[in-house]
UniProtKB/TrEMBL annotation:
Protein name as it appears in the record: Ornithine carbamoyltransferase
Lineage, top ranks: Bacteria, Pseudomonadati, Pseudomonadota, Alphaproteobacteria, Acetobacterales
Gene, per the UniProt record: argF
Assigned protein family: Belongs to the aspartate/ornithine carbamoyltransferase superfamily. OTCase family.
EC assignment: 2.1.3.3
Enzyme class: transferase
Molecular function (Gene Ontology), one example: ornithine carbamoyltransferase activity
Organism of origin: Falsiroseomonas selenitidurans
């Protein structure tokens, strides 16, 4: 018979709520030291980067090593992928050498092609339209600080970017209300909102950051200029459009008194978030960064069929 389809981790929307919850629980167990032995012993994972990374690179490499596996970190610039070998052929070849592939890419079509032709799991380490590993860490972080996220209100203010789009998918899968305040020009895709609402998600869109944040238990933002938006003209345009969406003390006063503040990092201090908020008592951004390590262990254990 045909071999079972690999357990890809491409988009939160591809997976059901129970599967995602199981992965998250595995990540929590890993964090608590409750994953015994070296479950990845004898396994190799290729980590491919088409774009820079600090957290994703180090948390995957260290996490794989802590689980007893080997990580091979690759820059697409040093691979034939960077000079025209197709993602499909790259997938066919790497499937003969390693046990899983993580890819960070500027084009979601490449990871879809890679996954379609790989016989091993493919993990999304950020695309132009998604960042699901970040969301696993973000849900873990919220729940550590404030308990179950289902039914809570989370406010996103800023660009309707890749991380925002994964938040929309997470709202559908983890059952929280998501209010997004973005300039109209930078709103997330209407099709994605329609999908999430059809799945039963509560998604509210506004252009007013104060309205989005009002009473929220969690306030989230991200850079004004993502890695896929780095032309000079785009930068100017985005700074103008996004200045009113900054997370600062005045905005935070509209949130619930015990609201936490998240940011996937890297932060551009003084732009999308002030120093006072980022270094203030409501910020959990470094717990969030740490949780990439733990949450991704849950993703790896699930993807490799080890739990
Ligand atoms: N948050 C995040 O993915 O950071 P890096 O770009 O440093 O990997
Ligand atoms: N939205 C940001 C996230 C970086 C982790 C980017 O894509 O550059």
């Amino acid at each position: 018979g045909r071999p079972a389809a690999p357990r890809h981790f491409l988009e939160l929307m591809d997976l059901d709520a129970a599967t995602l919850r199981r992965m998250l629980d595995l990540g929590v167990q890993a964090k608590r030291g409750q994953v015994p032995g070296k479950p990845l012993a004898g396994k190799s994972v290729a980590l491919i980067f088409e774009k820079p990374s600090t957290r994703t690179r180090v948390s995957f490499e260290v996490g794989i090593r802590q689980l007893g596996g080997d990580a091979i970190v690759l820059s697409s610039r040093d691979m034939q992928l960077g000079r025209g070998e197709t993602p499909a052929d790259t997938a066919r070849v790497l499937s003969r050498y390693v046990d899983a592939i993580m890819l960070r890419t500027d084009n979601v079509a490449k990871i879809r092609e890679l996954a379609e032709h790989a016989t091993i799991p493919v993990i999304n380490g950020l695309t132009d339209v998604s960042h699901p590993c970040q969301l696993m860490a973000d849900i873990m972080t919220f729940e550590e600080h404030r308990g179950p996220i289902a039914g809570q209100v989370v406010a996103w203010t800023g660009d309707g970017n890749n991380v925002a789009q994964s938040f929309i998918q997470a709202a559908a899968r983890f059952g929280f209300t998501l209010r997004l305040a973005t300039p109209p020009e930078l709103a997330p895709p209407a099709r994605l909102i329609d999908w999430a609402r059809a799945e039963g998600a509560r998604i509210e869109l506004t252009t007013d950051p104060q309205a989005a944040v009002a009473g929220a238990r969690c306030v989230v933002t991200d850079t004004w200029v993502s890695m896929s938006d780095e032309t000079a003209q785009e930068k100017v345009n985005r700074h103008n459009l996004l200045a009113p969406y900054q997370v600062n003390d005045a905005l935070l006063r509209h949130a619930a008194p015990d609201a936490i503040v998240m940011h996937c990092l890297p932060a551009h201090r003084g732009e999308e978030i002030t120093d006072a908020v980022m270094d203030g008592p409501q910020s959990v951004v470094f717990d969030e960064a740490e949780n990439r390590l733990h949450a991704q262990k849950g993703v790896l254990l699930w993807a490799l069929g080890l739990a």
